[in-house]
Amino acid sequence: MHVPICRSHRIWLLAWALAICVATPMGFTAKAQEPADQIMTNGVIYTMDPEVARAEAMAIAVGRIVAVGTADEIVAGFRGPETVVEDLGGRVVVPGLIDAHAHMIGLGLALRTLDFRGTSSAEEIAEMVHATSGTRAADEWILGRGWDQNDWPVQEFPTRELLDTVARDHLNQPVYLTRVDGHAAWVNTRALELAGVSAETPDPDGGKILRDNDGEPTGVLVDNAMVLVGGEIPKPDDVEYAARLEAAQTHLLSVGVTGVHTMGDGRENVETYHAWARAGKLKPRIVVYLDSDDEGILDWLDERGGSAAFAGPHFRVAGVKLYADGALGSRGAALLAPYSDDPDNEGLLVTPPDALAAEMTRVVGLGLQPTVHAIGDRGNRVALAAIKAAFDVHSPDHGDVDLTWKRPRIEHAQVVALDDIDRFVELGVIASIQPTHATSDMYWAEDRVGPDRIEGAYAWRKLRRAEVHIACGSDFPVESANPFYGLYAAVTRQDREGWPEGGWYPEERMTREEALACFTRDAAYAAGMETEVGSLSPGKWADYLLLDRDFMLVPEDDIWRVEVLRTVVGGEIVYEAPWSAGQ
């Protein structure tokens, strides 16, 4: 990665500068040698551009990068009387980090409700509910997220009885607590009563109501069964909704996330993002993948003018998120053979294969990018088959749809049959992965799938060796939104205490360069934005971070401790930590 700034790089820089103008996808043009608005010099700039991997200085005009190169070249070529020149004092600059799979409003909700990540028992969570209960009205819902029974001394699902004992008035106060992966909910008796869920309630398609020996609901709902109770939770008012979005974007900018691919958003979220973008209030670049479970959302999008109606530098609708299966932690991920630790269970297909193929075909036909949640090996195989079916219908021979940019995505691609890896390549499928899922799941993942199937689980090196395109994200609020946690997990495959020594299945680790690319250049590619963001290249938006230490050089143990001193989007400082360039 430490490529010297040599004569060939200077030629590349000057060739750009001598051009009459530079056209960009957003219509920006810059005359040759026109003075820059800003110049940053005396820095260590990792551009993630293969043409110039490392530079000392960068020039910016009208929110876009004009040039990168040596300090002397940039200052001599682009400094004018109004140019602001900043000496970085050797500090490190990287492109803004893009989270390729996340839940924007979900993060805002998590920041404003109970957060159970890091808790170690059901009783600890119950105490948190009890403490909150006394501050709420007797009929107000208590919401929280982040519990994980795999982290408890007794790794069993909790029951409603424990929650019944801690709410201030268990006869009236409903409780709904979402599991860390978002694929199960733990509720109390009052919540079940409000939803009319009883022993007579059948399991919905693609969902499961856990029951005791008498057939009564235990209080845990898996996948599509969550909607039975979740649908009763009152929607937030406009003030609370805005507070959630503000909390989410403030936090993201503080940890260096300048772009988010937010997954499974409904029409209300889309309208809110759009309004904020038009008002100049939306600071990260938000790419939406619509929720296929939001009934009628594709008709709604068509009525609103299609995806073109929601397109701009800070917000766009790119595609649709479909759903194949559930999650591994709650044993809802669909497997080709039973779970190794639950031999009567093969997981859940939340969408029947034929229906998934039909949905995929419609999405592609509307010119939208298809992406599908798939975690288990059967879920991934069904997702690949659906993509193939859609592309067969809309093949170039039909001439009705341009497939050249579609770049179908599978979200998570967590447990993949080794025979199916080549199918990702054949179909041009992007594997959208979350490195911290591996380090969260590694304590129990092999128990779930056994020693053979684990070879295709979280198998990043195998995917890379096959030349599968990989983009990285966090799945926040399932995991922390801090992308340096993901970079650390990708490079070490260890938890933040350094376990296990040498990394979990270390042969699947990424290099630092690969990991950073997956959160920048490759994530931009996954949303069709590689000409706009993802590297510090002339013509692209000036989205970048100033770091407190060198990501490429710090000891591996310290990667997750890297902090952001400044976050810039389109040349605008949107976050700055207290710091002094002289320190």
Throw out a few tags for this protein.
single chain, alpha/beta, Urease, subunit C, domain 1, Diaminopimelate Epimerase, Chain A, domain 1, TIM Barrel, 19 helices, 24 strands, globular, disordered N terminus
Q: How does this structure look, described?
A:
The protein is of the alpha/beta class and 583 residues long. It has three domains: 1-95 and 534-583, Urease, subunit C, domain 1, CATH 2.30.40.10; 110-230, Diaminopimelate Epimerase, Chain A, domain 1 (Roll), CATH 3.10.310.70; 324-533, Metal-dependent hydrolases (TIM Barrel). Helix content is 30%, strand content 21%. It has an eight-stranded parallel beta sheet with strand order 8-15-16-17-18-19-20-21. β18, α12 (377-393) and β19 form a beta-alpha-beta unit. α3 (104-111) crosses α8, α11 packs across α12 (377-393) and α14 (435-441) packs across α17. It is globular. 52% of the residues are buried.
Summarize, please.
The chain has 583 residues and is of the alpha/beta class.
How would you summarize the topology of this molecule?
Elements: H1 7-17, E1 38-41, E2 44-49, E3 52-55, E4 57-61, E5 64-69, H2 71-78, E6 84-87, E7 92-95, E8 97-102, H3 104-111, E9 114-115, H4 122-133, E10 142-147, H5 160-164, E11 175-179, E12 184-187, H6 189-195, E13 207-211, E14 217-223, H7 226-230, H8 238-254, E15 257-265, H9 267-278, E16 285-291, H10 297-303, E17 315-323, H11 353-365, E18 369-374, H12 377-393, E19 409-412, H13 421-427, E20 430-433, H14 435-441, H15 445-453, H16 460-465, E21 470-472, H17 483-492, H18 512-518, H19 521-526, E22 544-547, E23 564-569, E24 572-576
Parallel strand pairs: 1-6, 2-7, 8-15, 9-10, 10-11, 15-16, 16-17, 17-18, 18-19, 19-20, 20-21
Antiparallel strand pairs: 1-4, 2-3, 4-5, 7-22, 11-12, 12-14, 13-14, 22-23, 23-24
Helix pairs in contact: 3-8, 11-12, 14-17
